[in-house]
Amino acid sequence: MMHALLIQFLYLLFFLQIKTTAAAPTQLRPGFYAQTCPAAEKIVRDVIIKAMKRELRSAASVMRLQFHDCFVNGCDASLLLDDTPDMLGEKLSLSNINSLRSYEVIDEAKEALEQACPGVISCADIIIMAARDAVVLSGGPNWEVKLGRLDSLTASQEDSDRIMPSPRANASYLVDLFSQFNLSVKDLVALSGSHSIGKGRCFSIVFRLYNQSGTERPDPAMDPKYREKLDQLCPLGGDGNVTGDLDATPYVFDNQYFKDLVSFKGFLNSDQTLFTSAARTRKYVRYFSRDQEAFFAAFVEGMIKMGDLQSGRPGEIRRNCRVANSRPLHALLET
Ligand code: HEM
After folding, report:
1. Residue 311: per-residue pLDDT
2. What Pfam family is a match, any one (predicted)?
3. Same-domain status, 195 and 64
4. Domain total for the chain?
5. Which residues constitute the domain of residue 188?
6. pTM of the predicted model as reported, rounded to 2 decimal places
């Protein structure tokens, strides 16, 4: 009996070793797939172009995936895993439920890549390429992405709930949070500039409109005309899923977002606070509102730094971004 168990265990260990790669952080680099799948970046870009033709907003939705993936145990596509009977994934976490979207765009890219080069490109790298493409195709800066990530074997709703910031967050909380990921105040402000494209739900701002910090009053740091507009869009007790634009040019990646913050027309509390609550973030908001090129350069730097986050845990190249190929040893032993 013991003998049979031991053999089973060793077999399992062997099986896992050939399917997954060990825990050392991978050396990411540009051109990682130049030999194994030279068309990879073009394939992803074409899928993003198609998705944007269907729905312009998908650029914003796809780009946001990088943030929500990389902050929770590194850029490992953990975000894309569907729940299983023994794993609550990240899709239903507080920040993601009814909010993250365009997962199907990543699926489409994965399918096209599996056709061209089966088993080669990780879902984690697809997110990174797709986020860059979404920015470029919305009129923002271009940059070379580092690749070579592996996909996680698991995901954690708990970790996502613990880490991802709320739209109520204030500047000092965000500065502290980002610093835990080796991201500076400048990185925080530049990366928040991603809200230059996309939309947010009334759900994310009703507290700001009607009961800021428990005062039963609106946030005073709002332009009165802008507040009137948001009051109409999001009446008290109205549908929380109605969406509004995160800045005045929601389909163009530009520095309008920062101009809006300077004139107290930020949509989210976590945006407006960068201008109103702390001198160290205000300085960059003002700077980027005046100099789009400086914003673009800082944004690229921030995206690359964020893309470098890794957990060091074992990984694999998933065949389907929603499902792990193999499961970690402890999960297999528990079943
Ligand atoms: C600084 C902390 C951040 C907070 C508190 C925050 C919060 C939010 C919230 C609440 C929404 C609207 C969600 C909804 O109402 O359903 C949103 C949308 C969005 N966020 Fe952030 N975010 C932050 C940083 C970032 C970063 C770093 C990125 C990417 C680099 C990003 C990209 C986006 C995009 C593109 C959208 C619009 C998505 C769409 O239209 O589908 N955000 N964010």
Report:
1. 94
2. peroxidase
3. no
4. 2
5. 171-302
6. 0.93
- Mark whether 190 and 273 lie in a shared domain: yes
52-56 mean pLDDT: 98
Tell me the best of 67, 163, 261, 301 to mutate to test the pocket of ligand 1, counting ligand atoms within 8 Å of each CB and taking the most: 67
What pLDDT was estimated at residue 74? 98
What CA–CA distance (Å, rounded) separates 155 from 143? 29
Active-site residue flag, 330:
no
For residues 185 and 114, membership in a common domain is answered with no
- The predicted pLDDT at position 5 comes to 46
Give the Cα separation of 299 and 247 in Å (integer).
Answer: 17
332 pLDDT band (50/70/90 cuts)?
Answer: low
CA 3, CA 16: separation in Å to the nearest integer?
20
Do 63 and 194 share a domain, yes or no? no
Contact 164/99 with Cβ under 8 angstroms? no
Choice among 45, 57, 64, 68 that is catalytic: 68
CA distance 142 to 102: 21
Q: How far is CA 224 from CA 139, 209, 265, in A?
A: 30, 11, 9
How far is the centre of ligand 1, averaged over its atoms, from the C-alpha of 278 (Å)?
20
**Per-residue pLDDT at 11 exceeds 60:** no
Q: Please report, for the domain that includes residue 89, its CATH number.
A: 1.10.520.10
Length of the chain, in residues: 335
pLDDT at position 13 over 50: no
